[in-house]
Specification:
Elements lengths: L9 H22 L7 H5 L4 H14 L3 H24 L3 H22 L6 H8 L10 H25 L5 H13 L10 H4 L3 H21 L2 H17 L6 H31 L6 H27 L9 H11 L1 H16 L12 H25 L4 H11 L9 H4 L2
Helix pairs in contact: 1-4, 1-14, 1-15, 1-16, 3-12, 4-5, 4-11, 4-13, 5-6, 5-17, 6-11, 7-11, 7-13, 8-10, 12-13, 14-16
């Protein structure tokens, strides 16, 4: 969700770009099909020892942290839309709901035609629940946010006691659809590598859409995303991120506490995830809550401190570099899927199911570096990313100029 307004906040764009970096590191192991390989197949790779370390570090530093940042930024974006609409005397709710409708279409198209791991559709649906809380006191919104973040643990605890699974019907529907399309447990990890036509890829995506619904329910992702939206909205509404100089001591506390508490607990989380939940799935849920969110908040706070240490709006080479992909985050998120298909699927270079996790993450870093360069080049001539431009035109019901004026290009 863009910062909006006539003057963009550089460090918010950069933080969004940083979140996009984490997202490609989290998602590419699935694109490379490494995640879907049997343990024996993964262990047979020459880089298994290195991969084990990379996998552990991924759980420590990446897993869950960057979608958390992206969700917070979404909530902040909601507050910015309302503020900008109010300054123009426009109907903020109409604008917001049109924006969510546009995002829903983008998410559905992404889910059905490019990648089964889409998050945009869920963002749009959960985003539509933001307006009812917009006038509540901040403390009450934060209380609701905490309840939402804790609800997955309570829900799993109740389900364990009753011996039921909320996601079981979706899991059954997923595998029925998979088998109807010739996808089985035996070929699941290699199907996309062996696909020689897009029609075959689309068959996988059909069952993958149901699998994604199963994952949302199984992980209670809707509770988590909405809770993070609420927190982000409060941060934006209270002007905390537009008055960085005034609240710098508080941001330092969040950075210190978030990293000091979240990092050691994230090590515990990584151990639990890579060891098959030895303390039980419910304990794993608790560790997730106490590790992922604090460390993600710590990341965000530390990033803001570093990027604004000389300039309240953000400065420095790294901040500027990250701001380019951040300004067109939706386009870059979708393009990461396109790159993943080209590199790893059979209709592209077909490297999937044969590339180690270590190499996969190096490829991800290479793709992201390319995205920085492409974003810089694109924004030299255009005001918005291509998807952002279409989305913005739909949201406001009018065509905006896409190309920059010569005076703007020279700035």
């Amino acid at each position: 969700m863009p910062s909006g307004g006539k003057t963009r906040i550089l460090f918010l764009d950069a933080l969004r770009g940083f979140a996009i970096l984490g997202i490609i590191l989290a998602n590419f192991p699935e694109f490379s099909l490494w995640t879907f390989q049997e343990s024996a197949e993964a262990a047979a790779l020459d880089t298994w020892g290195t991969d084990s370390v990379v996998r552990f570090l991924q759980y420590v530093f990446v897993d869950g942290k960057f979608y958390t940042l992206f969700s917070l930024l979404f909530g902040i974006g909601f507050s910015i839309i309302l503020r900008n609409a109010a300054s123009r005397g426009a109907d903020g709710m109409k604008i917001f709901y049109r924006r969510m409708a546009g995002l829903l279409v983008i998410g559905i198209l992404h889910l059905l035609f490019l990648w089964s791991g889409d998050i945009l559709m869920l963002y749009a649906l959960m985003g539509m629940l933001l307006p009812p809380i917009r006038k509540l006191p901040s403390r009450k919104i934060l209380l609701f946010a905490i309840i939402l973040l804790v609800l997955p643990i309570l829900s799993d605890g109740i389900c364990l006691m009753l011996g039921v699974s909320l996601s079981a019907p979706l899991e059954s529907a997923w595998w029925r659809c998979a088998e109807a399309n010739g996808i089985t447990h035996g070929n699941f990890g290699t199907y996309l590598r062996d696909a020689s036509t897009y029609q075959e890829v689309f068959r996988f995506l059909k069952q993958g859409a149901i699998e994604r619904m199963y994952e949302f329910v199984d992980a209670h992702r809707y509770f988590k995303v909405l809770g993070l939206f609420f927190i982000g909205y409060v941060l934006g509404r209270e002007g905390i991120l537009t008055e960085v100089a005034k609240v710098r001591p508080a941001i330092k506390k969040v950075a210190t506490l978030g990293i000091c508490a979240g990092l050691p607990l994230s090590v515990l989380y990584a151990w639990s995830a890579t060891s098959g939940y030895p303390l039980g799935s419910l304990a794993h849920d608790v560790i997730y809550l106490l590790s992922v969110y604090p460390l993600a908040f710590g990341y965000g706070a530390l990033f803001i401190l570093l990027s604004t240490r000389r300039n309240p709006g953000g400065s420095g080479f790294a901040t500027k570099a990250l701001s380019y992909p951040g300004r067109m985050a939706c386009t870059n998120y979708i393009m990461q899927s396109v790159f993943g298909i080209i590199i790893f699927y059979g209709i592209g270079f077909g490297l999937g199911a044969g590339v180690s996790l270590t190499v996969t993450e190096l490829i991800a870093l290479g793709v992201y570096s390319l995205q920085i360069l492409l974003s810089m080049l694109w924004l030299k001539y255009f005001r918005f990313g291509p998807i952002e431009w279409v989305w913005r035109c739909f949201t406001y019901g009018k065509a905006f100029p896409l190309t920059l004026k010569k005076s703007q290009e020279s700035q």
